[in-house]
Each structure stands twice: as C-alpha cells, then as structure tokens.
Amino acid sequence: MRRVALAPLGLRQTALWLAVGLVLAACHRAVPSAGVSVAPVAVEATPATVAGIDVVRQAYTEISRNLFRSVTPRELLLPAWRAVGQEAVRQGFGSLDLSGYQERGSDDIEAFAREFTALVMGPGRGLDTGRIAQAIVRAMAAAVGDSHTRYLAPELAESQRRWIDGVPDSYTGIGIRIDRLPDGIAIAEVYPNSPAERAGLRPGDCILRINGHDAASLALSDVSTQVRGPEGTEVRLTVQRAGEAAREVVVSRARITVPSVPLVTSEMLEADIGYIRVRALPRRSTAVDVARDFDDRLARLLAQGARGLILDLRDNPGGDPLTAVSITSHFVTEGPVFVTVNRDGRRTVYAAVSRPTVYRGPLVVLVNRSTASGAEVVAAAVQEYGLGYLIGTRTCGCLSVGRPLELADSSSLIITVEQALTGRLERALEGVGLEPDEVVRGAPGSGVDGPRLRAVQYLRGQLR
Predict the structure, then answer these.
(1) What's 40's DSSP letter?
(2) Dist. CA 105–CA 101, nearest whole Å
(3) Torsion-angle region of 201 (φ positive above 0: left; ψ -120 to 50: alpha; else: beta)
(4) Which of 76, 242, 253, 352 minimizes the number of CB atoms within 10 Å of its CB?
C-alpha cells in the first residue's frame, strides 16, 4: 500500500495516438488514347476504411485496459450493437436485422469491426458511420454503469478541457445549465441575455422532451448534445413549470459565453459567522488558484472575527482531487483524506497536507444531490473526523477517479480507473452518496435558502 501526502490523481491525461494512413498517391502512367474508357478500380471496404471504426476500437481498448474492474467483451459489444440499431432507426433506415452480425461480432473488437464493416457495406450502406461510432462509444461507456465513465462528443470534450484548465467557456446553444432530478431533467440556471432567457425559460423548469426525445431517458451529456448545435438552428423543448401544464418552446441557438462566476466566494453573515461557497474544484479559476483563493478568504473571515463557519458545497461537481485535499486540510490536519483502489487491488492513501490557515471552530457543511466527487471527499472527511455538521440532502454518490482520454476524432472518453473510498472509515460512496446529519431542502440563491438559515441557527446555538 502506498501512502502519499499529495500526488496527481485524475488530472486530464491526454493519450496521444499517431494515425498511420494509407495514402494512394498520384500514379504517373500513360494517358489512354482518345475514345478508350477506363473502368474505375473497385476498392473493397475494410475496417480500416470505415469512418469511425478507429474511434470505436480505441475506446474499446482503453476501457478494457484501464477500467477499475475487469470487463468482458460482450459487456461492451452487445450494448454497442444495440446502439447501432437505434442509431440506424434515427437515421431513417428502419429496423435492421442485426442478429447475425451481433452473433458473429460480439466476442472481440476485431470481430465487431469486421461485422460492422459488412453491415455498412450491405444493408446499412449509406449510414453515417461517424455518428454511429459516437453512439457506440456512448453505449459502451454507459454499459460500465458507474458515475464517471462517460463519452463526450467533440464540442463537449473541448468544454470539459477548458473547464478543467479554468478557461472561460463558449459554445453554441441556448444558455442553460441542467441538472438531473430523481424524476427527470431540470433547468438549474439560465444565463443572462441568453436565448433561453428570451424564450421565458426559468430555473426549476422541468424538461420533458427535447427534439422529440424523452429527456428523462437521456444521460445529461446527451441532453447537452441535443441542446447544442449550429448557430441559428432551433431546439424544440417540452417544458413544465410547477403548477402549470406542459408547453412546447422553440429556441434559436446562438453563441453563448458562460458567465464568469468566481468559484470561491465569501462573506460575513453575522458578526461572528463566516460563509464560504465553493462552486467547483478545478485546478484553477482563470488566473486564480482555487485552493489559494480559499485559504485567503478563510484567513480574511477569521481576521474579521468569524467564530463559526459555513462551507457551502451545494451544486459542486468536484474536479481536481489535489484541490479537494488542499481544502480538506484546512480542517483535517493529519490522517487520510481519501483512499483509492485500482483494478489490481493496489491501494493509495491520500493524506492531509500543511495549509497556512487552519480552522478549529464550529463548522457546518451544506450539501445536496449535486455535491459530487471531490466535493464529497471534503464533506465526508469533515463528517468522519467529527469536525463539522452536515446540513442539506444526500449527495450525488459519484465518488470514483475518472481519467479523461482524448479519442482520435477529438471527442473524449472519461474512464473510471480507480475506486475511491472515504479517508477515515473507507466507505464506498459510489452509487450511495453521503447522508447529512440533518436533512433540510433548498437551493443556494433561492428566495428562502432553508439550509443556510438552518446553518446559521445551528452555529448560533454552538457559539452560545
């Protein structure tokens, strides 16, 4: 077992592949005399010449080699064939009989490539194989069944890379941020001056259908893909607001610049109660290191007389585990923060590190269903070491270590390479989540923020 104070984990690790292409150069031969026709040379399609098959092969290989658990070929390839059939229907080919192809092409990736090639050169001739390849990789990632393994189409992959690096993002869409609820998809945020705002969409609106698809059946990344598209084109949404009937809204896509919001904010709520909200844990927020900014704000609150502290991790999707360890170390000064286990059973313990400012007073951590990954690491450590009181709702249960890998078409495959456990009790929160000490519902920034009000009340009692 390895024990480390701090080491890179889950950072963007881009795998580079050199594509070796077979180029048919101009052949200098005698020009036939007039009146002589030359028949075109028939070139037999092979897996190497079918668009997208290289991406499928690459994704299959990376999942098989790097996933935190072993996976059989059929676990990945049977869902891949189902994706082929579904995408063929979406492309207007109707229901293709894939039984023979599936039977012959589900035992290894090369068999799949051969049968897929035979399909697209036969009854599936004319299919957009690039789009099918994306559907296949998405299906293989979903088949793994954990919170971090997922596929991102090229534009979403670029957004992810920019977010990890703390670079302001822009894309073509309608200007909303979405969230998954227990019963569907909801709008979490509407960006100012966006097409969505002009169309009358509001936070809290539930998205029932998007471009004819049942939104609840789609992954969040698929919903994002459906919302995005060429500038000037339209997206058709069926939305429902609480207490109102469902309605259809057509919104024109435009270039969207994601509002630049500080990832760490702070304020004094009362004379002796400080409040820090951390919205995400990337390596840096534009030019500001998130961990350093947190330390500066905590020191400032203590200098202003804070004797009680609220740490708001609601809607925090996590990010860089180095940042999670650094923030946790303001409260947990020694001992393990979290533990990882790879597919071979090798364990690595990530311990607290030295920070300039340490807080030992009464502490409340606010969490909700969108508190995920690295943010769950922070909250769990505070709870397990008995250093604070958790208020809110059960967290996401998305605690594993994902590694982004760039695919040949500039899309991205995020693979869970290690399981992550909490530091002191070594609990597995993946798929379970962290239960707060007190359940209080409410969203940050809402008219009446119940969890924050309860946190102030709790701290006031502790400070008497």
Answers:
(1) P
(2) 6
(3) beta
(4) 242
Pairing assessment for the beta strands 400-406 and 389-392 based on DSSP bridges: unpaired
* Distance of alpha carbon 319 from alpha carbon 291, whole angstroms: 12
d(CA 176, CA 125): 38
Q: What size, in residues, is the chain?
A: 464
Identity of the residue numbered 430: E
| Homologous superfamily in CATH for domain 264-463 | 2-enoyl-CoA Hydratase; Chain A, domain 1 (3.90.226.10)
Please compute the mean of the pLDDT values over residues 116-137 and round it to a whole number. 91
Question: Among 298, 280, 300, 299, which residue's Cα sits nearest to residue 290?
Answer: 280
pLDDT tens per residue across span 323-333:
999 999 999 99
Nearest to 124 by CA among 145, 155, 100, 144: 100
Pairing label, strands 184-190, 170-173 = unpaired
Hey, what's the torsion of the CAs at 350, 356, 362, 365, to 10 degrees?
Answer: -50
- Tell the residue number behind the tokens 């070139």, with chain if given: 43
pLDDT at res. 263: 86
Residue 268 corresponds to which tokens in the numbers above? Answer: 């004094």
In 3D space, the residue among 140, 135, 130, 131 whose CA is nearest the CA of residue 60 turns out to be: 140
Contact 396, 373 (CB under 8 A): yes
Residue written as tokens 């090369």? Answer: 110
CA-wise closest residue to 107 among 137, 75, 133, 138: 75
Residue 225, Cβ density class (10 Å: 0-12 exposed, 13-18 middle, ≥19 buried):
buried
Assess if CATH 2.30.42.10 describes domain 169-257: yes
Domain with CATH 3.90.226.10 in the chain: 264-463
Residue 72 to residue 14: CA distance in whole angstroms: 25
Distance of CA 298 to the CA centre of its chain: 29
Predicted confidence at residue 462, as pLDDT, reads: 96
**Could you tell me which of 290, 289, 265, 285 has the C-alpha nearest to residue 275?**
265
pLDDT of 96 reads 85
The DSSP letter of residue 263 is S
Query: Which residue spans of the chain are classified as CATH 2.30.42.10?
Result: 169-257
Work out the angle between the directed axes of helices 73-90 and 53-66 (0-180°, nearest 10).
150
